[in-house]
Fold these 2 entries.
Entry 1:
Amino acid sequence: MAPTSVPFNDLRTRFAADAAGYRAAVERVLKGGRYVLGPEVEAFEAEFAAYLGIGHAVGVANGTDAIELALRAAGIGPGNEVITVAHTAAATVCGIERSGARPVFVDIRADDYTIDPRAIPAAITPRTRAVLAVHLYGQPARVKELRAVADRKKLLLIEDCAQAHGARSGGRPVGTYGDVAAFSFYPTKNLGAFGDGGAVVTADAALAARVRRLRNYGQVDRYRHEDAGGFNSRLDELQAALLRVGLRRLDADNAVRQRLADRYLSRLRVPALPCSMPGTDHVYHLFVVRHPDRDGFREGLRRRGVETLVHYPIPVHLQPAYAHLGGRPGDLPESERAAREVVSLPLYPGLTAEQQNAGIAAVNAAAVEERGLAKDRAPALISVPS
Ligand SMILES: Cc1ncc(COP(=O)(O)O)c(C=O)c1O
């Protein structure tokens, strides 16, 4: 077995990219004497809101809480349904279920793996309150169509932006199209902390204020509690200070991701490459290709020292944890096909050109080998229309 020469990710490269900046942030917090919800959180919230061009950002403990809090602050809970996708991190659905609402799944588009707006009307019932779109892998969902469907059907539009910090559609960042949006700052994210973190963003001042109360025991002022069901979901000062450093680097990091993606796109010979939809800026949180013999292809890459992951091998409607929702194989053909075929290749700002070249050579060799094709008959790329 070859040693791993191309790791899927190496988070040490994030620290190394600005070690002095991160060290200074940590020292400032340690010396400052405030460790949970303090000036760094306030500054990060203001800077993140300004970056997105939205009124309010509220720091919370993680992205799953951000989804739950966004829904609850929007008044969604038991007895309500939220339309979403099954081809996502299970956390999207955990957040919906924890709000008390019932997730209702619709299929994704085959081309960009995001929610298919055309599938939404048939899933609406009198209990439906919201559409929760996931900007999966860094590709914005079809926000304009989604906004139009939501407005027409009088539903809220909620965005799960956990994989899409800095992604844009029509020049406008994701997170600003919905009534409310949730971000995760899990360390691997495009804007990642050095621990857990998340944020709820919205233009609605009252909704933001409700999230602020709910994240902190439902309290308005010290020891005065107005919201029942409050809990502890606070962003800590260390993570906020570190995120401020990361936020200053986000656009440059996303530009590096784009350059790495461009190299992959022009050199890889695999059955299906990711496509960036016209009018959007994909931020390549993940670089996801498809292969009909995905497991054989991955094994070929593993033997060549290239680490890969699968996002995600089991669609949420077929997960044992969600059997109570009644999902059956065949319900969501595109989500199920994606779960069988997708594989994520290494792409992160610290990936070196040498590592990427090794990855490209390995992918092209393994893609041909696993399909049993002669080298001069590499599979044609599937080009997917928008
Ligand atoms: C699409 C999506 N939604 C939600 C989450 C949840 O974020 P967290 O891990 O910070 O709770 C994640 C991250 O894992 C994610 O990828």
Entry 2:
Amino acid sequence: MTEPVLDNHCHLTADNRGIEAVKDFQRSGGTHLLVVNQPSWKLGIEADEPNDFRAVFDETVDLVERASDVLPGQAWPVLGVHPALISRLVDRGHSPDDAAELMMDGLDVAAEYAADGPAIALKSGRPHYDVAAAVWEASNAVLRHGLTLAAETGVALQLHTESTESLEEVADWAEAAGLPPERVVKHYANGRCAGVTPSVISRKEALRTAAESEYPFLMETDYLDDPDRPGAVLGPKTVPRRTKWLREEGYESAVHTAHVETPERVYGIDMQASL
Ligand SMILES: [Zn+2]
């Protein structure tokens, strides 16, 4: 019997390895993927209006369909606006509030793909680097808009944030927006993240922390599929390989947590039935 193995956060590029990376993942024992759209500027799009994001989302949806053909399970899109876009927009002369408005409108477009389409999560967040107070406030407004949209469309929200072990304030905002905090996912977590669900970067130390904690968690590579940064972050075979390693280390129940229980809890997907 095939066991489900989910990479909860990776990127694919049509012009780079694309589906070849999915085949690597599958041959290593991977079954399911959540594919997050690339930042708009990586595709050469300088967004000036919300509809500019559609090309970005459509490319991801297309890659996801092709990935599902290769996988024993399936792939799903995670769509949203990268939080670092605010700095690019401010550099191009937008005020922080003006930039935030465009990003919120972009998230509204992503939410269409969640309400009527294949996306099972939205993606938002705030800069992971130091920014001016006005940019930080505007970014938090975008993040909170993401929480509201996820609540309204009944999907999860993946967050790109500063490196932290606690997002309890964000969990309070989620609650206030009507989104269960466990449906908020901290991408690139180092093992634990109080308040929300950590998507743990699949390095041994971080995975051991997560497995020992006995809290819900997901596993990811943040594979970039970026020709300019080959070998940056982790490769597409990493989640299946580290899953095998977790089993060898005796963390069988953590494997079940990462690949069956937590995906069901966060996204409402039945991993075994979708195999
Ligand atoms: Zn990413």
